[in-house]
UniProtKB/TrEMBL annotation:
<dbReference type="GO" id="GO:0005737">
    <property type="term" value="C:cytoplasm"/>
</dbReference>
<keyword id="KW-0808">Transferase</keyword>
<dbReference type="GO" id="GO:0005634">
    <property type="term" value="C:nucleus"/>
</dbReference>
<comment type="similarity">
    <text>Belongs to the methyltransferase superfamily. METTL23 family.</text>
</comment>
<dbReference type="InterPro" id="IPR029063">
    <property type="entry name" value="SAM-dependent_MTases_sf"/>
</dbReference>
<dbReference type="GO" id="GO:0032259">
    <property type="term" value="P:methylation"/>
</dbReference>
<dbReference type="Pfam" id="PF10294">
    <property type="entry name" value="Methyltransf_16"/>
</dbReference>
<keyword id="KW-0489">Methyltransferase</keyword>
<dbReference type="InterPro" id="IPR019410">
    <property type="entry name" value="Methyltransf_16"/>
</dbReference>
<protein>
    <submittedName>
        <fullName>Uncharacterized protein</fullName>
    </submittedName>
</protein>
<keyword id="KW-0949">S-adenosyl-L-methionine</keyword>
<dbReference type="GO" id="GO:0008168">
    <property type="term" value="F:methyltransferase activity"/>
</dbReference>
């Protein structure tokens, strides 16, 4: 199973904020190998791991990660971005949403935000902590964040000691350009998403 560079950076952010995770309910979107979710669980959170309901192998990877790390109380659920499914509707109250490199394909950007927007409506105090690998200066979330009335804060990697090519004894994130973002419910104004302009090269 492959661990993406973004996952290591997000896991480092969780470790830096570990005091905030105790007894929280955390949902990881597009979890795959689930490094951030596993770390959150080990730090005292009640964790739900999710990946596409249409990709059973991804769900198996989530379960395999739980087994490897001896996590017996982590739930694995199938959630497809952009679909308001019965499983999404039945989720418990969530304090925090995680996403590692979920903004991989521009065709999925809005679907991810549709799902996050629904979670924000059910859980107004929830935050979405996500890492993003910059692959093209032509890609931007700014208009979509405004459309879905979200605010975004870009967190400098140095703030949580992630501005290094190797973290936690691994060779990741390497030389990849990774951004750490905290997305919250907003009012859709330009000021609330302006900080995101660094990802689009403006």
């Amino acid at each position: 199973m492959y661990v993406w560079p973004c996952a290591v950076v997000l896991a480092q952010f969780l470790w830096n904020r570990r005091r905030e995770l105790k007894n929280k309910t955390v949902l990881e979107l597009g979890a795959g190998v689930s490094l951030p979710g596993v770390v959150a669980s080990l730090l005292g959170s009640s964790v739900l791991l999710s990946d596409s309901a249409e990709l059973p192998q991804c769900l198996k990877n989530c379960a395999r990660s739980c087994h490897t790390n001896r996590l017996k109380v982590v739930q694995v659920v199938g959630l497809s971005w952009g679909h308001i499914s019965p499983r999404l509707l039945s989720l418990p109250k969530v304090d925090l949403v995680l996403g590692s490199d979920v903004f991989y394909d521009p065709q999925d950007f809005e679907s991810v935000l549709v799902t996050v927007s629904f979670l924000f409506q059910k859980n107004p105090l929830t935050q979405f902590w996500t890492t993003y690998q910059v692959r093209s200066s032509d890609w931007s979330l700014e208009l979509l964040l405004s459309r879905w009335r979200m605010a975004c804060e870009l967190v400098p990697l140095g703030v949580f000691e992630a501005d290094k090519p190797e973290l936690a004894g691994s060779r990741l994130p390497g030389n990849h350009s990774i951004q750490m973002m905290v997305i919250t419910p907003g009012d859709g104004s330009p000021d609330s998403v302006r900080i995101y302009s660094t990802l689009s090269g403006t």
